[in-house]
């Protein structure tokens, strides 16, 4: 693409330069022919140098017109691009160039620039979310553990208080372990890609295992589960798909209301398997739904709910590694509906 772009621009410059030389040469030849034919230059005639002045003036006008044309068609777009790149270098990732241009090469160049800026903006957003999340998620449990260690140094503590402090320290270490595990899993997925180990297993039984594992959580809220999981054999990565159902079910429980319902259905279709996990919880806005699968994104900036913004990003990446898709449909205060599709005949590559 790059070689083609610069090659076409070189041809354009060459054509403009050639036409400029042809036009100027034609004007000079024409004027010299007229001067010679009508004998306009003669020492005996008064003002015999006027034709030369006229030729010089006309040449300057033609050169200025062609220079303006070249500047507007080629140099001005390059200047606009330079100014835009200068703004990007200062951290302004909102700049976008108008892609409507007569030159196809400039139009493609502007389009590539706009795509680059959007990607940089996404990376900057991810970096900000990462710094905000990691700094808080590590700082809070570490501060908690440090505080309880200091309290445990008090020899007059009762056995009950000592046990309570130890349990809270354990909660802090589990929070740190969960965060680091998710980061390592994402890194593993980024590095290994489709090189994961695929095998055939019971998909319906795996989802049941997740539901049973989370039973203490949904029983605490008196949730009603509507489950339909027919016998399903699937060829995929069992370890990582377990994380998908675990994250989705945990979120469905966490954001559900007391005495609510959770709908978990598995449908066997000719093209693949469709899994639907729906809750009647707090739901989310369209703006949140658009970013819910971004790494380190948390809609609850107050951090009243536990989480580090990695669960759904991890789930999406795992599903996509199985050539599947995950979509969410949600309304505020009405719940969320997650639809996952896993295709059949997936080969380990």
3D architecture notes:
The structure is a single chain. This protein has 349 residues and is of the alpha+beta class. It folds into 3 domains: 2-92, no CATH class; 137-193, Helix Hairpins (Orthogonal Bundle); 197-343, Histidine kinase-like ATPase, C-terminal domain (Heat Shock Protein 90). The protein is 60% helix and 13% strand. The chain contains 9 helices and 7 strands. It has a 5-stranded mixed beta sheet with strand order 2-4-5-7-6, covered by helices on one side. The radius of gyration is 35 Å and the shape is elongated. The two termini are 29 Å apart. The relative contact order is 0.08. InterPro entries: HAMP_dom (IPR003660), HATPase_C_sf (IPR036890), HATPase_dom (IPR003594), His_kinase_dom (IPR005467), HisK_dim/P_dom (IPR003661), HisK_dim/P_sf (IPR036097), HssS/ArlS-like (IPR050398), Sig_transdc_His_kin-like_C (IPR004358). It is found in: Membrane. It is a multi-pass membrane protein. The chain crosses the membrane at residues 9-38, 50-70.
